[in-house]
Amino acid sequence: GRRLAVKLLNASKFVLRFDDPGDGDVTEALDRSMLHRLADLVDEATRALDAFDYARALERTESFFWSFTDDHLELVKARAYGEQGPDASVSARRALRTALGVLQQLFAPFMPFVAEEVWRWWHGDSVHASAWPESGPLRAAAGDAGALPGVVAAAVLGEVRRAKSEAKRPLRTEVLRAEVADTAERIAVLQQVAADVCAAGRIAGLVTAEGSELSVACELAPEAAA
């Protein structure tokens, strides 16, 4: 629909505003996790199209895309701008461009004109003449990363957003302290992506503890006096 087309246009504009990092390496856990999940999507969408299940291919691509725009872009935005140093920025920008190209190709059968428009912004050929994406290069770039870093980061950020919403505070409100409890495995993963989560959630202090399930308690900065 129109909302999806507009979102693809806006996401493409955002990703392409950053300088092309060339052959820079994808080194950060969150970026590699996203590419791992993107590889799974490519395999799933390809199987669905081969089976003429077009609805399934579009549904899975849309689901990934909304997560990519609502969560991943927000999580890596500060790092892409260089707030964690040049190497971390290169990793974010390389992964974003890789994902954008694949998503434009996956959407091309369903939104041929919009996909062609955004593809032409940074390619000299037609998206409809490009080779269909394969999962192999994505898995190679992802290395041993699995889906969990992205899942954990998005879940914690979602709880921080909810705390701000329930307090009727803007998303830009600073969190003085966020206490996150979760299983030992997920807490260990959170440590790998903590800088991205803190930047996206505007968290000044992050404290973790082991628990049976995810819980996040936030202390928000006081509202400025009127």
Kindly describe this structure:
The structure is a single chain. With 226 residues, the protein is mainly alpha-helical. It folds into 2 domains: 2-142, Isoleucyl-tRNA Synthetase, Domain 1, CATH 1.10.730.10; 148-220. It is built from 8 helices and 3 strands, in the order αααααααβαββ. The chain has helices spanning 2-16, 29-50, 54-80, 86-107, 112-120, 135-142, 148-166, 184-201; strands spanning 175-182, 206-210, 215-220. It has a 3-stranded mixed β-sheet with strand order 2-1-3, covered by helices on one side. Helix 1 packs antiparallel against helix 4 and helix 2 (29-50) packs antiparallel against helix 6. The longest helix has 27 residues, at 54-80. The termini are far apart.
CATH-scheme architecture of the largest domain = Orthogonal Bundle
Morphology: globular
Query: Which whole number gives the mean pLDDT?
Result: 96
Into which percentage range does the β-strand content fall? Answer: 5-15%
List descriptors:
8 helices; mainly alpha; 3 strands; Isoleucyl-tRNA Synthetase, Domain 1; three-stranded mixed β-sheet; 226 residues
Mind sketching the topology for me?
Elements: H1 2-16, H2 29-50, H3 54-80, H4 86-107, H5 112-120, H6 135-142, H7 148-166, E1 175-182, H8 184-201, E2 206-210, E3 215-220
Parallel strand pairs: 1-2
Antiparallel strand pairs: 1-3
Brief characterization of the structure:
With 226 residues, the chain is mainly alpha-helical. The protein is 62% helix and 8% strand. The chain contains 8 helices and 3 strands.
